[in-house]
Each structure stands twice: as structure tokens, then as C-alpha cells.
Amino acid sequence: MTHIALLSPGARSAGAVLPALELLHHTVVGHAWDRVPALTGPGRPDLVVLDGTGDLVGARNTAQSLSAAQRPLPVLLVVTEGGMAAVAASWCVSDVVLETAGPAEVEARVRLASAPAGPGAPEPEENVLRAGSVSIDEDSYTVKLAGRPLNLTFKEFELLKFLVQHVGRVFTRHQLLSEVWGYDYYGGTRTVDVHIRRLRAKLGSDHEHLITTVRNVGYSFTAGREPAA
């Protein structure tokens, strides 16, 4: 029996999100999306079933938040036929299932998504930071964006790592100078702007918005944030 956390905008029931799940012998507990932090602590479930049948953007952001946890949970995303085409690797989900799937298919997907790693599986990466589609390996000083390696200088790496370690928090230029360059650095705050500009260029037009400018304050890293229309 699998312990499943069902995440949806309003803590909907399994019958409303994925009817076949109600017919299976698993423990399913419904939660609202803002319960994400609690799910990654003690008593964590074996699997998250994520409701993407209505708010696709919210489902994507929730999945990316879960992937940024220190011990990420496997995520099975439920979508409509129309929503299937929007799902991408950057959403960081383990598998996708249509809301109309039958019990046999849902059981198979739950079993595969929640299965522990086998003897031949690679060891978990203990020193890898993750935030949405960005992964940072502190041991090898490498950064990947949706699986694609980024060629960063040492300071670009350190700046991105610091921002990713504090997702959503805004830092002033002076704070970033002291944290990344050190108190003994005598350069001006323009150094931060230059490195932010270079980082955004290397992230590319589809992902540069992950580093947010807060006017008259500084910068932050916001995993899963949508670019402005």
C-alpha cells in the first residue's frame, strides 16, 4: 500500500481529480498546494499526486517547488487531454497521467513512480542543489539547466549558487558583494549587475526571468516564475 499525498488548489478528493485512484488500495490524503513544505519533513508520503486538471501554471510551480526540496518526492501529475501538450521536462515531474485513466494504468504508474531505486540505480547526489530546472553540483562546480550544462565562471557559479540557496529571498547588491565576493572586496556594486547580466545571458531567453530584479532593492532567484507577458 502506497502513502499518497494528493495536492490540488482546494484539497479536492481523489474522486474529483483522478477517479480511478479511489478504486485502488492506497492511502490517499488530500492537501492544498500551500502544504508543500510540510510534505518534505517527517511523515513524508511515498508519492505526490498533483492535480493539473485546472490550473496548469500552479501545478507546474508546485512541482518545481517540490523538486527543489533537499529530499525531492516523486510526483505523478494528473492532466486533461488538452493539458498533456503543455507538460515539459522543466516541470520536474516523475510521470504524467490523464484524469480519465483506468485503475490498471493508474496502479502501474503509482507503482513505478513510487518504487525505491534498485541495486543498479545511481547513488543520490548529496551535494546537488535544485531549484526548478536548475541543478548545481557543489562538488564538481557544474550547473545544469533542464539537463543542459552551463559554462559559468567561478564567480558566476558562486553567485548563482548563493541565490539558489535562498530561493525567493531578495538581496541588495551590497549583501551579494559581501556574501559572494567577501568583505575585503573593494569593487563597486556594478560588479554584481555585470555578473547578473552574464548569468541571465547564459540562462537564455526562456529562463533569464528566474533571476528577478526588485527595483531599488536588488535581486532574487524565483524558481518556476513565469516571464512577464
From TrEMBL:
SMART domains referenced in this protein's UniProt entry, alphabetically: Trans_reg_C
Segments crossing the lipid bilayer: none
CDD domains: trans_reg_C
Domain of life: Bacteria
SUPFAM superfamilies to which the protein is assigned, alphabetical: C-terminal effector domain of the bipartite response regulators
All residue ranges annotated as the OmpR/PhoB-type domain in the record: 126-223
Keywords on record: Activator, DNA-binding, Phosphoprotein, Transcription, Transcription regulation, Two-component regulatory system
Pfam family, one: Trans_reg_C
Any one GO MF annotation of this record: transcription cis-regulatory region binding
Chain residues forming the annotated DNA-binding region: 126-223
GO BP: regulation of DNA-templated transcription
A cellular-component GO term for this protein: protein-DNA complex
Protein name stated in the entry: DNA-binding response regulator
Organism: Kocuria tytonicola
Lineage: Bacteria, Bacillati, Actinomycetota, Actinomycetes, Micrococcales
